[in-house]
């Protein structure tokens, strides 16, 4: 099982790398609360090399595939005598795969924000943003339910992981997003911009250490 956890860690690190290639910028001004998130990201990407953010987009589908392989650790982690929970784990696995596949697609299309920002076709960006929002709905549905089931499984003692590991599941860590958004400087940009994948990096790192120990 630890090998699937390691693969999941690689997948989350790859998607995190994609995040940073897409829109991490030292020179970008801090986003004002009144500024739309997509407008801000588009402005940031407008100042980045095209090859860089296109590379970030290309990583998305591959990282999603690696993520999917890693998610299978949920099925393997269920205590052997708990047959019913095996079915729950399988559902959680499939839902997480469903969500991250749409997340990878989201990544692959994200460079359009930067490309349209470099041309006079900015009006088309609104159409793209609406399409992005639809992709993210499927991501949030799949992973929202999948991570929720993961939390319940671990917290209830249905897995080989200690119950306290439930506090580092992605669904719980996601609740810290408003707090990490307040971290200043480049560290804040890195953490806040990549938080949706950093939460999986933290989760996999913890459960790998738990298994090794």
Give a verbal description of the structure.
With 213 residues, this protein is an all-alpha fold. It contains 11 helices and no strands. The protein has helices at 2-23, 37-46, 50-71, 73-77, 83-109, 111-117, 123-155, 170-173, 177-180, 185-193, 195-212. The longest helix has 33 residues, at 123-155. It is elongated, with a radius of gyration of 18 Å.
Task: Offer a concise description of the structure.
The protein contains 11 helices and no strands. With 213 residues, it is an all-alpha fold.
Give a short account of the largest sheet: none
Counting DSSP E segments of at least 2 residues, the number of strands comes to 0
| Poorly predicted residue ranges | none
Calculate Rg over CA atoms: 18 Å
Mean pLDDT: 88
Element string (H = helix, E = strand): HHHHHHHHHHH
Strand content: under 5%
Structural class: mainly alpha
Helix content: over 70%
User: How would you sum up the global shape?
Assistant: elongated
Q: Give the oligomeric state.
A: single chain
Distance between the termini: 14 Å
Number of helices: 11
